Amino acid sequence: MSTPPVTHEISVDGRPAPVRILSSFGEDPKVYSNAAVAYGEVRDGCLVRVHSRCLYSEVFDSRECDCGWQLKRSRELLTVKGGVLIYLDQEGRGAGLWAKANAYRLNNEEGLDTFQAYKKLGLPSDLREYADAVQILNGLGLTSVQLLTNNPAKIEALEKAGITVARIPLQAEPTPTSVAYLEAKKRNGHLLLPVISLTLPVSSLTSPRSCRTIVAIGDFSLTAVRGQSGDTA
Question: Would you list the domain boundaries of the chain?
Fold first, then answer.
């Protein structure tokens, strides 16, 4: 039996009013928990980011992947435009930190990308599932969303649940340390498309940093690609 969800408010940088936190728990809340942040009053067609935990990039600022960048950019967009950030406790594409650590070890020792490393470890390439994300969106009454993602599996999961998806590409600029990772993701079906960049002044984001480059077009309206899980990069 699952532990009942908990809802409360917190204050965040860039928004004058508190945001709403919705936390969900499995049978053991000590080892399983997901959370969502509702930025303002959410409605159909709002921005949504479904994000899985990545300790290395989010806490240690690792540059081997784009996860931390995607989370930061999503928060910036949601802070300005409103919407929902769903944070899933699915480290290492759902296989956990042990699998991720060993995949990185195999990368260091043998040059394997994380998909190849998972195969060598006898693991599926991606164990993530999005039922909790669907449940959260249903609980918020959302039937259509603009989804910040390059992952067709997320689009497919939401569409199968009856949620209409317009995809917003969310692609980081490749760096010498992340380019191999991004190429591996593209080979494994991620929709890494050309990005249109817009540099916004600090006043637009109410951020202490001077400027940001984000996935955007024109006067901060976002370019949506209608979500079809069968799309190819």
Answer: 6-90+128-193
Average pLDDT, the chain: 79
Residues 178-197: tens digit of each pLDDT: 777 778 787 877 766 433 33
Q: Which of 66, 113, 126, 132 is catalytic?
A: 126
β-strand pairing of 197-201 with 211-215: antiparallel
Give per-residue pLDDT as tens, 27-54: 666 666 889 999 998 999 999 999 999 9
- Give yes or no for a contact between 191 and 152, defined as CB atoms under 8 angstroms apart: yes
Instruction: Inform me whether the pLDDT recorded for 227 exceeds 50.
Output: no
Task: Give pLDDT, residue 224.
Answer: 53
Among the listed residues 20, 49, 73, 128, the single catalytic one is: 128
Please choose, from the candidates 43, 126, 33, the residue with its C-alpha nearest in 3D space to the C-alpha of residue 86.
Answer: 33
Residue 63 annotated among the catalytic residues of the structure: no
Long-range pairs for 10-14: beta carbons < 8 A, 24 or more residues apart? 12/37, 12/79, 13/79, 13/206, 13/207, 13/208, 14/76, 14/79, 14/80, 14/205, 14/206, 14/207
- Could you confirm whether 128 is annotated as catalytic? yes
Distance CA(45)–CA(7), nearest Å, equals 23
In terms of CATH architecture, what is 6-90+128-193? 3-Layer(aba) Sandwich (3.40)
